């Protein structure tokens, strides 16, 4: 039995990530991405929910559920075709482990049923890094939100971005991360985030965009 190298502590911040077995895709289409994003909201609770609830003949929007106390505070997230990144703060003892267990179990059950498969989907236990300095924590906001640029230009970190304006446009269109929430786009996914639980590194939309733009303009 493997022992986790990083032990989670109440009130601390962590970068969590995992990918598909043998780097296989874990998100194939819009439905897969949207299911996982919705689970980020619904699994963040001591309560258990059914994904589809009918009230008065109408399917209830999961984002309108009363979750009660949350297990974790999510500061940022990004989904990529074969992996995901989360920025997490533990709200209660054991909260991260319980949240991630609920999240991964719910998504694997959905995925295996949809694609008529069995067995594990992810590459072992999720990985974690303790964000124990202000500099590291602030950096992770940019690191997570810049991930989709690899889909626009795979070698951008090594070679620099060839078309910076188009890279920004690509980020502005990428809906499977919390980037849009930080640039002021109003959508129901806003409720996934608990921004008040994090230091106010970006008091305004302009401050956040400036930080992202600075990373994009760096020469590697």
Distance, first to last CA: 40 Å
CATH topology: Alpha-Beta Plaits
Low-confidence stretches: none
- Tally of individual domains: 1
Rg over alpha carbons: 18 Å
CATH class: Alpha Beta
Strand content: 5-15%
SSE order, one letter for each helix or strand: EHEEEEHEHHHHHH
In terms of structural class, how would the helical and strand content be classed?
alpha+beta
What is the level-2 CATH architecture name? 2-Layer Sandwich
Q: Strand sequence of the main sheet, in spatial order?
A: 4-5-1-6
Average residue-wise pLDDT: 90
Looking at CATH, the homologous superfamily is: Transposase IS200-like
**Outline:** globular
Count of distinct strands: 6
GO molecular function, one term: transposase activity
Organism: Candidatus Zambryskibacteria bacterium RIFCSPHIGHO2_01_FULL_44_22b
Protein name: Transposase IS200-like domain-containing protein
Blueprint (SSEs and pairs):
Layout (H helix, E strand, L loop, with lengths): L12 E7 L10 H13 L11 E2 L2 E2 L12 E9 L2 E8 L4 H20 L12 E4 L3 H13 L2 H4 L3 H4 L4 H10 L5 H4 L22 H13 L3
Antiparallel strand pairs: 1-5, 1-6, 2-3, 4-5
Helix pairs in contact: 1-2
Explain what this protein looks like in three dimensions.
Strand 2 and strand 3 form a beta hairpin. The protein has a 4-stranded antiparallel sheet with strand order 4-5-1-6. It has a two-stranded antiparallel ribbon with strand order 2-3. The protein starts with 12 loop residues before the first strand and ends with a helix. The protein has helices spanning 30-42, 95-114, 134-146, 149-152, 156-159, 164-173, 179-182, 205-217; strands spanning 13-19, 54-55, 58-59, 72-80, 83-90, 127-130. The longest helix is centred in the middle third of the chain and has 20 residues, at 95-114. Helix 1 runs antiparallel to helix 2. The protein is 37% helix and 15% strand. The chain is built from 8 helices and 6 strands; from the N terminus they run E-H-E-E-E-E-H-E-H-H-H-H-H-H. The chain has one domain (13-217): Alpha-Beta Plaits, CATH 3.30.70.1290. InterPro entries: Transposase_17, Transposase_17_sf. GO terms for molecular function: DNA binding; transposase activity.
